[in-house]
Amino acid sequence: MTDHGDSGGDARGVERTVWTGGCACGSVRYEVSARPSPVTYCHCGQCRRQHGLAGAYVQVPRTAFRLLGADTLAWYDSSQGIRRGFCARCGGGLFWDRRSSDGIDLTAGSLDQPTSLSAERHIWVEFKADYETLGTDGLPRHSRDSRSPQIAGPAGEAS
């Protein structure tokens, strides 16, 4: 993963080795033993319907991910080869899982604070909601996935 100059340390400067998170009611909990990737904002139609606007995700290696409590964890297939995990009790969205990948995506908001993470990019901007304004956060914007051409630079002047 790319290091963006943020050590992931706590307020005392101690390097963090475990990140934890879970749903709003606490029924589903997880821990991660590797630093999550920077946050990606996804503006696709599925994320908009799942989260009410853009989804904010981080990725971690599947081998570093461990469920601690999953009694109410439910999954649904959102598209071919991809499933989304959520808490069946509180409805909290937690995971985006491409089964063929070595990683699993966690909703950034499900991580316990502070995360010491930073945002990296916007994807699927072509499909953002018509009422959504991206502003000038300085992040790269891609019309589709991160392999598609960048449609606005770090100055954030489009969209």
From TrEMBL:
PANTHER family to which the protein is assigned, alphabetical: CENP-V_GFA DOMAIN-CONTAINING PROTEIN-RELATED, GFA DOMAIN-CONTAINING PROTEIN
Protein name: GFA family protein
Region (Disordered): 136-159
Protein family per UniProt: Belongs to the Gfa family.
UniProt entry tagged with the keyword Zinc: yes
Any one GO MF annotation of this record: metal ion binding
Species in which this protein is naturally found: Azospirillum thermophilum
Keywords: Lyase, Metal-binding, Zinc
Pfam families listed in its UniProt record: GFA (PF04828)
Coiled coil spans: none
Occurrences of domain CENP-V/GFA (ranges): 19-132
